Amino acid sequence: MKFVWGIHPNALAYSMTTLGAGMMNSIFNFYYVKLFLNRYKISEAAFHQAQVVFMIWNAINDPLFGYIQDNSAFSCCSRRQFSILYGAPLYALAFLLPWFPWKHYEEGDWQSGLHLIIALCAFDGLLTFVLLAQCALFAEISTRHESRLQLIKYNQVATLLGSTSILFCGLISDNMENFACFQAFTVLVAALATACMCYTGKYSTSQYEQREICMENANLENGDGTLSWSSVISLTKQIMAEKNFLLFVAMNFFQIFHLAFCNNFTMIFADNLIPKDVLPSSLRSIMYGAGFICPQCLVLLSHTSLKKFGYYRIILFSFYFEGVAAAAMFILGSEHYYLLAFYLTTNMVIVQASFSLFNLPLADIVDADLIKHKRRSPLSSMVFGTNALFTKPAQSLAPMLVVTILNQFGYENLNNEVAQPDPSLFLGLHDAMFYLICLVPLCVAVIQILAWAHFSIQNSHVTAVH
User: Which is nearest to 251 in space by CA: 315, 299, 317, 343?
Assistant: First the structure.
């Protein structure tokens, strides 16, 4: 592999998809809940209906695309690079769907609910198609721990750059108050993201690439390139029979729940619990941007620690940190506004930073499956897709649960008031928000520690794969 100016070209090509997806995903996940609740005035029932449909589709599409990408006879699906290349423009178009209303929505308009369903399902479907191929590339570029850490390093730089979209979006659009500027910025982001992901599709390679080309040609000649559904079910059972896979899925489910909780509601919690004269709009934009930028800096700075201690101990430490921080904030109370802002930002940073390492244990699970079952090539997409089947529903459960709780304390009425309401009427709502901020991370951390403690692949950073 030829290096130019000290840059590893394959790692650079791989990370360009992370850059493009990071720019779009950060904005989508951070703004869509507030957009539909506050601007489009979607009803609670329609919001829940959209999340249920999204939850079902979100769970189904990952193993479906995993099966297609691992077993399709068509190169646009079976070749990881082609999946990214052809999926990128559609992914970018799906990203733009929520930001352009079909009409001026009245309060409780059914069309806003349909809009949310289509936006969520289209965006997640294309996201899955593209990023599942990239996840498979991660496991297939190399089985060496050092090479994977290099990919993680390049990936975090790309994510760091991509996550600045939140900061610039907040500053340019005044945190979505200037909606026309917000819309223009999302179009620019979609164009840049498409170019980045197409670079991956053109220039990335994997150690299985030549084997894939030979198998693809053989399949075209023999006409037997796909597995039967009985074979797929059998392979899925083999994957799910692994104790480490099940423990990882349990831990990852709550990580995704916690991540969705932070991404979707940090802005809403901060707007209601921290007065605007204490934290003006510009500082809030910096705070929100830091919640997406700092995780990547943290992972980059921990590169030496990852090589020394391994991902297992780093992830376990993050769970303990989250639990202790949540307990401390709960004891101190909500009246310490600057401390609360720091806690909200730190919570986002730690959750996102530890989640950025999750490809490492999944790649080790892929390797273990390859060796145990003596496969000719790894079932990378199927492992990643089966994991997503059970963990992606957490993305919908988090906003459904939180919106239900908040509306029990009058958030829907607060949101529908034209004039600024008397803050004393919503003290119960503010208390509920604060309890959620502290108790959700605390409970999640306890469950994750219990699951992760039994994960047995703990020393892959010192054990070579034979």
Answer: 315
